[in-house]
Amino acid sequence: MNNEQLQNEIENILNTSKIGVLSTAHNNTPNSRYMIFYNDGHTLYTKTSIESKKIAELQ
Hints:
It is a single chain. By secondary structure, this protein is of the alpha+beta class. It is built from 2 helices and 3 strands; from the N terminus they run αβββα. It is elongated, with a radius of gyration of 14 Å. Strand 2 (29-40) and strand 3 (43-46) form a beta hairpin. The longest helix is centred in the first third of the chain and has 14 residues, at 3-16. The model has no long low-confidence stretch (mean pLDDT 91).
């Protein structure tokens, strides 16, 4: 698969599948959760509360 084909496949996946897994770790313990993602090109966005455990783990 060349680079152009790979880019097309990535865009196809991002445009058809909105559910993904966000994985973080805290104290070397992994934590994964399903989330809904939105994309702008190859940049992914997701919504969550500023008070969620995810935010603390990302910081």
